[in-house]
Design goal:
This protein has 118 residues and is α+β, with helices and mostly antiparallel strands. It has one domain: GSPII I/J protein-like (Pantoate--beta-alanine Ligase, Chain: A,domain 2). The chain is 43% helix and 33% strand. The chain has a four-stranded antiparallel β-sheet, with helices on one face.
Length: 118
């Protein structure tokens, strides 16, 4: 009677296939985690920038040309930002750029809007 079963090479091939599948799964999970963290940071930075632009609009004053720094905390993290106000060809409007960076100084996003004279 002949012995039945898998050879050593067949078992090793099966283990290699399983290992490659698991490695791909771990890599995909890591990418999803990194993307979720990036989305969290960008969303919080966007809230900071939008809050500054809204505050500027609610002041009902025509912004002067120049730069202003601001700080913000969202979701337990600190962000720093800069409002850059530039003139436009029409003197009744100003271009406002709100740039936000994380704690390490890495830029997260910039929001640009145009504000009119009230």
């Amino acid at each position: 009677m002949k012995a039945r079963g898998f050879t050593l090479i067949e078992v090793l091939v099966a283990l290699v296939i399983v290992a490659i599948s698991l490695a791909a799964g771990v890599k995909a999970a890591g990418a999803l985690t990194a993307n979720a963290a990036r989305l969290r940071n960008v969303s919080a930075a966007q809230w900071c920038a939008e809050n500054q632009l809204t505050e500027l609009r609610l002041s009902k004053q025509f912004p002067g040309v120049g730069e202003a720094a601001f700080a913000c905390e969202q979701l337990g993290q600190s962000y720093s930002g800069k409002l850059l106000i530039k003139p436009t060809p029409n003197p009744n409007f100003r271009r406002v750029d709100a740039s936000v960076s994380d704690e390490d100084g890495l830029p997260q996003l910039t929001i640009t809007t145009v504000m009119g004279r009230y």
